Amino acid sequence: MRRLRTLFMVGLTAAALAGCSSLSDNMRVPGQDEYRDDSKRAQVRGRLAGEDGILLFGTDRSRRSDAADSSGAGIGVNAFLWRATLDTLSFMPLAGTPDPFGGVVVTDWYTPPGTSGERFRATAYILGRQLRSDGVRIVVFRQELRNGAWVDVPVSASTAAELEDQVLNRARELRAQSTAAAR
Amino acid sequence: MRKILLGTTGVVGAALIGMGAAQAQTAPTVRVGGYFEFTGGYIDDTQDRNAVVIPNSGGRTVSRDKVDFRSDAELHIFVTGKAANGLSYGATIEFQIDNMVTNTGSQSGAGTGVDTDEVYGFVSSPTLGTLRFGDEDSAASLMAVSVPGPTQLGISASWDEFVAQAPDGNRYILADINDGNDATKIIYLSPQFFGLDFGVSYAPNGREGEEYRSVAGGLQRDPTDSIRNELSGAIRYRGSFGNIGVTAGFGAMRADAQDNAVNLQDITQYQAGLQVSGFGLTVGGMYSWGKFAGVTRAALLPGRDNSTNYALGASYAIGAFTLGAFYGKAERDNGPIQADRTQTLWGLGAAYTLAPGLELFANYTNVKDRNIALGSGVLAPAGNGPGQRDRDIDVIVVGTRLAF
């Protein structure tokens, strides 16, 4: 009998553990608009301005997902990749204004803290409207100070690839946040 | 080479550090929303017949006019923000054009005064659920599942806004579980697990806003002032099976009756509802029961028993049109020796979406009201006329509503 109970407990624990992942998949907090609203406003289909209320102050974050993949959007390249590139390269100073239509971000020279004899700059190209793993290309340049003059030196090939990975990870996060916000 | 590697690792490391700063909080937004509505009504009501005495005419009476226009509007302010830890927060402040019902229940009659409707703040955690606090509907109302219908067609929708009060002071008694009258309360709304979520709310008394009454007139904390300890809760399920969507809910509320010489009974009300939708068609119904008086959470006179409400309805969306129909019946116990009051309704209607947020609608509602009591609890005099116990109403409403 005791053994049966032990078996039962083990089975139950296993079922609970197996259920954990599906619980997180099936759990979410309903949005503020998912409750019954007895206002007459709530019954009408659609909204005059196409969005729920007219924005008086602040930035509308909920529309980013619309802009990301649609063709007629305000910027010429994928918005997630664009934003992710800016976020990733934001530790370096930017050279000039980034071009959201051509999808080019050029940084100025940057010397990492703790080093004095070397500096880096990067150029990022966002290659299209789709959120794809080959949608971003980053080139890193490196110089060393030799005898009072900056000299070009080779950069490890993996550096650019790691930065690209950072951009892609960040883009994935932004897209997940945007999807969650839109729900 | 080693130096190159070190240097480049530094660059990537700096990029990683920079990521933290990029996940800043979302700046708050302020939005304004609301609606404007214009309606015209044609009312044929047996209680309007010879209901008005012409002054100084020796008691000559005339009927009320059958046509009326109304305008209505609300302005809502929504403030929302999101903290870096994922916590959403905000406030909703709704202003309404109101008939200005005063604390004592009398109406100023101006019809164009502005006061607040729902006014509440909220915090919402992505894992723990949402807390709302302020003048807001009770949990059972926020999660109620009821009869579907196009704009302004329903059990207590546009028709009752055109008719006179019955002798007991109520225009309609068929309604969903009471909404808590926006009494100031705290509401917890849970996360959803496998389509199921629940909510609970508590209001210490029936007053709202920053209301306090003069010492001479009593305070909202006086046990004689209004109902007390109003608890409300609901559980609902929302899911889909293939192309069929199912929403089901059960809600309940209870409150202590105010202390009163006639020993009013404590209030309970329950509601179960179901909606099934697919291919543009939604059918649904609700059944509500409990010990309450009138339309909503009014304490019940001693010796009176359960009230019931039920309604069934359907709506069908085809392009810009939504068509709908419903049938429902309410019963109130008029005491052991008097017949129950019954109110039976049916209605047909349609709404047309002219542009996003702009609708035209038209509907017809038929009302059969029997055994209306006076405010004192005694049946009104026999007959089907003004101030009498029976009543038949036909209402046609045509209007437009703009929502933004």
Can you characterise this structure?
The complex is a heterodimer of chains A (183) and B (404). The radius of gyration of chain A is 25 Å and the shape is elongated. Chain A is 38% helix and 19% strand. The model of chain A is unreliable at 64-73 (pLDDT under 50). In chain A, helix 4 packs across helix 5. Chain A is of the alpha+beta class and 183 residues long. Chain A has a domain at 64-182: 2-Layer Sandwich (Alpha-D-Glucose-1,6-Bisphosphate, Chain A, domain 4), CATH 3.30.530. By secondary structure, chain B is mainly beta. Chain B has one domain: Beta Barrel (Porin), CATH 2.40.160. In chain B, strand 13 and strand 14 (281-291) form a beta hairpin. Chain B starts with a helix and ends with a strand. Mean pLDDT of chain B is 88; it is low at 1-7 and 16-24. Chains A and B meet through strand 1, helix 2, strand 2 and helix 5 of A and helix 1, strand 1, strand 4, strand 5 and strand 6 of B. Strand 2 of chain A pairs antiparallel with strand 1 (26-45) of chain B, so a sheet runs across the interface.
Quote the CATH topology of the domain at 64-182 in chain A: Alpha-D-Glucose-1,6-Bisphosphate, Chain A, domain 4
The number of strands of chain A is: 6
How many helices of chain B does DSSP assign? 2
What share of residues of chain B is helical? under 10%
Report the CATH topology name of chain B: Porin
Strand line-up of the largest beta sheet of chain B: 1-4-5-6-7-8-10-11-12-13-14-15-16-17-18-19
The Rg value of chain A, from CA coordinates, equals 25 Å
Question: How many distinct folded domains of chain B?
Answer: 1
Average residue-wise pLDDT of chain A = 78
State the helical fraction of chain A: 25-40%
Shape of chain A: elongated
- Please indicate the percent range of residues of chain B in DSSP E strands (runs of 2 or more): over 45%
Structural class of chain A: alpha+beta
The termini of chain A sit apart by: 49 Å
User: What is the N-to-C succession of helices and strands of chain A?
Assistant: HEHEHHEEEEH
Instruction: Report the strand count of chain B.
Output: 19
- If helices are DSSP runs of H or I spanning 4 or more residues, what is the number of helices of chain A? 5
Q: Can you name the CATH architecture of the domain at 64-182 in chain A?
A: 2-Layer Sandwich
